[in-house]
Amino acid sequence: MKIQFIWILIMSISSVWTYAHDVNKAYFTILEKDDKVEIQTEFPWTLREALIDFEPKLLEAKSSSEFKAVFKNYIQENLILVDRFNRKLPFLDFKELPANGHGHSNNYLLIFEGNNLAKLENRIMFNIYENQQNIHFFGSDKKQERFTNLKSPVLKIAFIFNLGYFSFILILIGFFIFILKKKIFSIKQKTERENN
Q1: CB burial class (10 A; 0-12, 13-18, 19+) of residue 161?
Q2: Do the Cβ atoms of 134 and 148 come closer than 8 Å?
Q3: What phi and psi values does residue 48 have, to the nearest 5 degrees?
Q4: 69, CA 20 to 30 Å: which among 13, 60, 102, 195?
Q5: For the chain, which residues make up each domain, given as ranges?
Q6: Angstrom distance (rounded) from CA 99 to CA 118
């Protein structure tokens, strides 16, 4: 009886240690920096399956350069960024990042040329999971969270995100100054009419 209890306890504890996040979820943190869009990604270990499904020759690959070439092509075909002028942002490169506490994840920094992101189409891993969910965070604070899935792979990004908070506040102040001047001008005209 004691042995069974100890065995159950060991299995319970080890299941917590070996936890891997959902195989059908990928995470994307999107940051606009000057003339580039950087996306920090966290893919589940099943990314390899998606790449092999995309390019079956990868099973016979002998070098990491073959993996990198397939990965780059996969990203170019499945993650499309468009600016507010309806131009596709070119995918430049990627860098491997250290794992964030998940031993079964693949983390990368994806770099796109351009800015003013207006639309994002993300079909990553839809080729292996019908219930794939890609979770997107905008900005470093990760407050704005949006999802893409097989039924809805495209996100339209609000113009305010592209402007940044400072620009938005300047526009808002300018609008209030315009309204205030207009109000003062109409009061001044009304006063002049009453005096005449």
Answers
A1: middle
A2: yes
A3: -55, -40
A4: 102
A5: 23-163, 165-196
A6: 29
106's tokens? 């693949």
Between 30 and 195, residue with greater pLDDT: 30
Closest by alpha carbon to 80, among 164, 153, 158?
A: 153
The alpha-helical segments, DSSP class H, found in the chain are 2-17, 47-54, 64-78, 159-163, 165-195
Neighbouring C-alpha atoms within 13 Å toward the C-beta of 149 = 9
**pLDDT tens digits, one per residue of 58-76:** 999 999 999 999 999 999 9
Query: Smallest Cα–Cα separation from 148: which of 26, 53, 42?
Result: 26
Distance separating alpha carbons of residues 164 and 37, to the nearest angstrom: 14
Taking residues 105-134, report their average pLDDT.
Answer: 94
Residue with tokens 């390019």: 55
The arrangement of strands across the sheet holding 36-44 comes to 91-97, 105-113, 36-44, 25-33, 133-138, 144-149
Buried b (16+ CB within 10 A) or exposed e, 28-55: bbbebeeeebebbbbbbebbeebbeebb
From first CA to last CA, the distance across the chain in angstroms is 105
